[in-house]
Amino acid sequence: MGTDERGTLEALKAYRREVIDPAIAGHNGRIVKTTGDGMLVEFASAVGAVTCAMAIQGQMAERNGGNSPKIAFRIGINVGDIIIDSDDIFGDGVNLAARVENECVPGGVYLSSNAFEQVRGKTEFDFDDLGERSLKNIDRPVRLFAVRPRSIPGGKPQVQAARSLALPDKPSIAVLPFTNMSGDPEQEYFADGIVEDIITALSQFKSLFVIARNSSFTYKGKPVDIKRVGRELGVRYVLEGSVRRSGNRVRITGQLIEAATGAHIWAEKIDGAMADVFDLQDEVTSRVAGAIEPSIRFAEIGRANTKPTYNLGAYDLFLRAISRYYQFTKPDNDMAVCHLSAATELDSTYTLAKAFLSFNHVTRWNQGWGEMGDREKSLWLAREAIADDSNDAAVLCYAGHALGFWGEYDRALAVLERAARLNVNNSQVLSSLGWVMNYACVDPDRAILSFERAMRLSPRDHEVALMLSGMANANLIAGRDEAALSAAQRAIDENPRFAPALRIRIVALAHSGRLDEAKAATAEYLRLDPGFTISTRVPNYRDPAFCQRYHEALRTVGLPK
């Protein structure tokens, strides 16, 4: 249409007149309505529908071999209940046919499993099982079949079905070449460099399956169908983007899409100056990679929660555990522990589940949900996870945080420094590193920088309250009570039930001489944790002087020792 609108319309009318309408009439079909460049057709027989569709595609393939405009149709066929309203039809049967058509390759014919069952063994065609697909606005996966002419020795089918690669057993992503919107060929290298760096950065997340650069770049300069990319590369998520330069400014946009449904998971615009192109490239890479991993993680949690509960593997149990964890209530956390324990029983080598269970014992102790033996269980799990996998940044992150919380400061710092070297773009690693520096009472300004970097990488993270509380704690250690109070309040605004933030706020108010406010905050806190005592809830900070100041502030407002 963009090249020759009038010629395309004339060709389309000719195809209707000479190919499509006669074929439909010859197979006892009825054109219910047309929809721009498409149509809805009703047949009395599924065999008639398939035979008609293949006749149309066969003739279209022949005609497209000549000099006429190359027009290709997708045809989707479904058998199902319909609602008749005058001359029109509606209902799930129609909706599903439309979704099947949307999945189809140009020039092809796809069937739903319902339609396939009606024509199996009754036609002269062969069928390729394409597996189950998640279709937009359809509440269950649908198995699709591609129709092709029966194979003849020495001959070629006229319609080739696109075969789907099986999805890996962990979240999978392809990063497509970014589009250069600047009209400047020199920016092509900049755009390609960003994509290559993002692929490398994402590859550092062991939780992700990342398609290599050579495969992703086969789509460079071509029109892209995200669903088709997902099928051809066998990925659940696709990242696409663009680069646009104006003067010395450049804007990079990126969007993360779930390939099967076309749903947008994440999107961001990043503006910068081209004065130092390499610094800008590094900044874009860090921000994109740091934001995508949490976005995929929570998309996967949502996906796992929709699966039937009778078919759960260790990975899905882990995702369900994280989902429960972030509800931040004791009953939900109890269920998270059950899921994590079940995951480690199903797979004794699942080090990430062990490490997160170790970290969760810290959370339970902090929130007043813990029990005797938490410290010993947490440390045992952390040490075992590190021994089993010392090259996974996420494992080292959770296990190192637990070690630091329970007082093994030097080993925890070493573990988390290694995790940061393994993956500098993991916001959780930076957050845990900041917290362990707090527990060890070393360099609070560096700890704050670590938290700030974590929030810059993942500004919409579910753990922002943890990061802000860490900043508040670091300011408290540095003697900056007003800054601590400000950060603690921001953390409470993010998560009013996060106990460490509430405690830090009480201490900061007490240190500032605002005892009435501190006592009112204490009353609020005790409603969340009525069994609180200073000896059983406050972390063991390495600096005795800071511990004493912290404990005195809590005793001043009436909290029991």
From TrEMBL:
- Every copy of the Guanylate cyclase domain together lies at 20-101
Report the source organism: Bradyrhizobium iriomotense
Q: What is this protein called?
A: Adenylate cyclase
The record's annotation in PROSITE patterns points to: GUANYLATE_CYCLASE_2
Question: What SUPFAM superfamilies does this protein map onto?
Answer: Nucleotide cyclase (SSF55073), TPR-like (SSF48452)
A single Pfam family it belongs to is: Guanylate_cyc
Q: Organism classification, top ranks?
A: Bacteria, Pseudomonadati, Pseudomonadota, Alphaproteobacteria, Hyphomicrobiales
What Gene3D superfamilies has UniProt attached to this entry?
Nucleotide cyclase, Tetratricopeptide repeat domain, TolB, N-terminal domain
InterPro entries per UniProt: A/G_cyclase, Adenylyl/Guanylyl_Cyclase_3/4, Nucleotide_cyclase, TPR-like_helical_dom_sf, TPR_rpt
